[in-house]
Amino acid sequence: MKSFVRAPLASEPVPPALRRMRRIAAGLLVAMALLFLAARALEPHHGWAGFVRAFAEAAMVGGLADWFAVTALFRHPLGLPIPHTAIVPRNKDRIADTLGQFLRDNFLTARVVARRMQRLDLASAAGRWLADPERSSGRIGAGASRLAADALESLDPERLGGMAKTAIAGRLRAIELAPLFGQALGAAIANGRHKPLLDGMIRWAARVLAGNEHLIRAMVHERSGSLMRWTGLDETVSNKLIDGLHKLLDDMAEDPRHSLRLRAEDGLVTLAERLQTDAELRARVESFKEEMLENQAFQRWIDGLWEQSRAAMLRAARDPERVTAGRLGEALKQFGDTLQHDRRLADTINRFVRRAAVGIAADYGDSIVRLVSDTIRGWDTETLTARLENTVGRDLQYIRINGTLVGGLVGVAIHTVDVLL
């Protein structure tokens, strides 16, 4: 397995809301300390000051305890290597493994994926978004775009590309191409869709003939006797041969019932049938497919296809509005309307997506888990810790505030019991 370098994530500034909550929590702790000193001075002369002192004293204890707990999640409090602190940095690799296993157990098993996908109508949701992307966008769409872009950039492109290439090659190996080609060709012939193909082949043959007339003349000249060359008959034969071939191609292009054209159509019908029934021909097609999959040029083509797809996905994630603009946007909107109103098409797409998702989970679930786990392991510890703290730190500061206030209330309750007893 490829070793992962500790690659730093893009650093982020501390959010203003987190800085504000830190100041509030720290200010509340300082206020409790000042209140404690004031109440301590007033307590010998005023009995009620004892309750204030108890509140402030317990509040300081609660606030400091929660500050220690919150800080210990991400770093050593005061820089001291106290045991069981800096929990996130020390356990980053274990968090990566746990997260990967969580994904495997709750999302990437075939049974779980099938059950969850059964309740989803992805075709209709995609249709609504395509039909009206502006109404369906907003904060959720922008957040999803940023998340998709960050995920594509953070995941190892070489491993992800290797997985994509392996998946494509695996699917191609699992599919027997000859019967599919035969059925497609047979359906095309039955519906008359093969005729433009024949027309194109005839036009291509005419262009090839026009561009290689000199080769035909050279061939006739070389094979002619000296007498024919001396009398110039070789040039006459060449002209007659070339003119005859041009006329034959013109007749085939103009006459749909031309005998050679009909024979070509019969050959296509025979080929379509043989691709489905002839075991020897099917084996030859499979052998050619295996040779193609092992060919280095084909593998480089798949690599290039993956990189182009990844770049296109990144562009779309960073600027989704460009994807829905222009003629492509109009076509996508029309497709979205069709998805919403054509129930059969939507059911077909949902069924295909479900089967694809279940197949991916069954075949590549472990690889995806390892990819996520190894990617997190490769992230820079300090940057990852800072990003996590920026994400959840505001809520953690509320814990400090609540701990200060709750601690103070507990202190008052304890002092009240002590006075009464």
Helical content band: over 70%
Q: What is the string of helix and strand elements? A: HHHHHHHHHHHHHHHHHHHHH
User: How many separate helices?
Assistant: 21
- Average residue-wise pLDDT: 78
Q: Nearest-angstrom radius of gyration?
A: 37 Å
Largest sheet: none
Shape type: elongated
Structural class, by secondary structure, is mainly alpha
Report the sheet-strand fraction: under 5%
**What's the multimeric state?**
single chain
Give start-end ranges of low-pLDDT stretches: 1-10
Give the strand tally: 0
Question: What distance separates the N and C termini?
Answer: 69 Å
Task: Please give a handful of descriptors for the protein shown.
21 helices, mainly alpha
Give a structural overview.
There is one protein chain. The protein is mostly helical and 421 residues long. 84% of the residues lie in helices and 0% in strands. It has 21 helices and no strands. Helix 4 (92-106) runs antiparallel to helix 20 and helix 9 crosses helix 17.
In short:
By secondary structure, the protein is mainly α.
Strands, helices and their partners?
Layout: H1 16-42, H2 48-74, H3 87-90, H4 92-106, H5 110-118, H6 122-131, H7 133-136, H8 139-154, H9 157-174, H10 177-190, H11 195-211, H12 213-223, H13 226-231, H14 233-254, H15 259-277, H16 279-294, H17 296-318, H18 320-323, H19 326-341, H20 343-378, H21 381-420
